[in-house]
Specification:
594 residues; two-stranded antiparallel ribbon; 26 helices; 4 strands
């Protein structure tokens, strides 16, 4: 009911006025005594507050002439004039100044008519980005899209991440959402990028002219693959073909078996005219090896021939392979067939006998199974083709299975060490959390990199990943980026878990539980950032960031760690990573830093 308004000449404690505002009430007469009493009590109350102060100077002006106690010894008093019109005046000049806060958003231009689908996606993501970070730049979106679309997109997000202090993993997500798959982002040589772009454009134009499509229509990816084989056969190059395979081979097009043979070196592109004779010769050669070493019965049971040298060793090797093959993807009907199991046992045994330096190691059965499923489109020749594709593949990944190469700073140790390094680079918070919980992700990355996710994703997803793995121009480095993408994809779950066994379960299931397409695009984005010309450098890397310390510490304690995280997880680690981690720990300290 009351409001204090002004204090005039506060230093001298001039009379203070209180203006009482009240609304008309229905029964105002009944409240007359209340207001009179309130006025008297208010004067008494404020007089008591001012009683210890020095006497005020003589008051002047309206409302101040009847001040009490004007003598030198009198106590100062305050006069409350409830009828006076005294109030705080608003500074209307300040309120109506020229400054006005304009909360309207700048006009956002619509995507231009000639924008592709990828251009439109980038337009929308930039729209949302600038709404959060710099709304006055919304009007420039179309110009930004035209300047940075295609290969230059990584530079755009690198600059924006540095300018607006984005975390590296946030920049990865933005790039993953807007990546132009038609750009050869997996190549780091600018000249080669230009040549590939020109070749892809040539393929598109050739397909459009044959099919009668206009230039703006999208060309079928499978058709581009077919034409890239024809173009490669003409000039002996496979760059465009490899680039298209890196983005995936459709199951329905039926090109994957042939594509993998080319990418693995079984059928060199430069010898395209001799493919039929090469396959016939290789298939006959495998049949000879198999006939010399094995006896295959009608029920597909495989036995080592009695005259095979070191017969006892051969029998033990065959039994070891048979045990592992019987456990291979038992949830998939195709691998429960006797014919499939017999063929896998035979080709793995032949490989082990012909390559005594590598021999057979647990886990090879999982790798061979993926190849066998892909080549099964031609069942009569699948076994021989898988043998040669498997042999070519093992040339590049055998380090993960060979104890003699455990001291190598490259190969599998280089890949696993790179996973740890990149997690530190792209998500330091997550790296520190895993370190505090004493569970480095390399415990699982080792299996991912050794077996190329053969055990850690569904069969269709594994085949799709392998399209990129074997088409990668930097041979299998892409498996590192997929491993990092799998960890980043479950970062929130990992950060909210502080129990070692919980973290282990999340990491173990990460590839299977992830949204596969998002994980793959995230891996592509990491690949694009890592292989771009680093101007400006992004993500920032500290010179002292090294892999050796973390990896050596993990290697020395990995066997014990497997037991700590729980019996079930431990069993999976110990059974599926071979040779045993404990044997390798001693050599891990020699791994070079990244």
């Amino acid at each position: 009911l009351a409001q204090a308004v002004t204090a005039k000449n506060c230093c001298g404690l001039a009379p203070i006025r209180l203006r009482l505002f009240s609304r008309p009430m229905a029964d105002a007469d009944d409240d007359e005594d209340f207001f009179k009493k309130f006025e008297e009590d208010s004067e008494t109350f404020f007089d008591s507050l001012l009683s210890d102060s020095s006497p005020p100077p003589a008051a002047s002006g309206a409302g101040g002439a009847d001040a009490r106690g004007t003598g030198s010894d009198a106590s100062p008093t305050a006069c409350f004039d409830l009828a006076d019109d005294d109030h705080i005046a608003l500074d209307t000049d300040a309120v109506h100044s020229e400054f006005h806060e304009d909360y309207r958003l700048p006009e956002i231009p619509e995507p231009q008519p000639d924008f592709t689908k990828e251009d439109v996606v980038l337009h929308e993501v930039l729209h949302q980005f600038y709404l959060r970070h710099r709304a006055d730049n919304l009007a420039n979106i179309n110009a930004i899209v035209k300047k940075y679309r295609g290969p230059a997109l990584t530079h755009l997000w690198a600059q924006l991440a540095l300018k607006y202090n984005l975390k590296p993993w946030e920049a990865v997500e933005l790039l993953a959402d807007t990546l132009y798959l038609g750009a050869p982002f997996e190549y780091d040589d600018p000249e080669r990028v230009q040549r590939l772009e020109a070749r892809i454009q040539e393929l598109r134009e050739a397909s459009e002219s044959v099919e009668g499509k206009d230039a703006s229509a999208e060309v079928d990816h499978a058709e581009l693959l077919r034409r890239s084989i024809s173009f490669g056969a003409r000039d002996g190059t496979e760059g465009a073909f490899r680039m298209l395979c890196f983005r995936g081979i459709s199951e329905s097009c039926g090109l994957r078996p042939q594509a993998w043979k080319v990418l693995l070196g079984y059928l060199p592109m430069a010898l395209h005219s001799e493919w039929n004779s090469i396959q016939a010769e290789k298939r006959a050669l495998y049949a000879t090896y198999k006939d010399e070493l094995l006896l295959v019965r009608e029920d597909h049971q495989v036995e080592a021939k009695a005259d095979v040298s070191f017969s006892l060793e051969a029998q033990e090797l065959l039994q070891e392979i048979r045990n592992d093959v019987d456990r291979t993807r038992r949830d998939f009907e195709y691998f429960r067939r006797p014919a499939t199991r017999g063929a896998l046992i035979a080709l793995l045994f032949v490989y082990a006998r012909l390559n005594p330096g590598v021999r057979y190691v647990q886990g090879m059965n999982e790798v061979a199974a993926i190849l066998f499923y892909v080549m099964s489109a031609e069942p009569d020749t699948a076994e021989a083709d898988v043998f040669w594709c498997f042999s070519e593949l093992m040339v590049e990944i055998k380090e993960g299975f060979m104890q003699a190469m455990d001291n190598s700073s490259e190969g599998i140790y280089g890949l696993v060490g790179a996973v740890t390094h990149l997690i530190k680079v792209y998500d330091p918070q997550l790296a520190r959390h895993l370190q505090r919980c004493d569970l480095p992700p390399v415990v699982f990355a080792f299996r991912w990199c050794t077996l190329l996710f053969a055990q850690d994703a569904t069969l269709p997803d594994v085949m799709r990943l392998w399209d990129s793995f074997i088409a990668d121009p930097k041979r299998f480095e892409f498996v590192v980026f997929v491993s990092v993408a799998a960890v980043l994809g479950c970062r929130e779950e990992l950060l909210h878990a502080d129990k070692q066994f919980q973290l282990a379960e999340v990491l173990q299931d990460a590839p299977k539980r992830a949204d596969f397409e998002k994980m793959l695009r995230r891996a592509w984005a990491i690949c694009a950032f890592e292989r771009r010309t680093q101007t400006p450098p992004f993500p920032m890397r500290r010179a002292s960031l090294q892999v050796v310390d973390d990896f050596s510490e993990w290697a020395q304690t990995a066997a014990a760690k497997a037991q700590e995280v729980g019996a079930e997880v431990a069993r999976g680690i110990q059974e599926n990573i071979a040779p045993a981690v404990a044997v390798r720990a001693a050599q891990a300290s020699e791994v070079a830093s990244v």
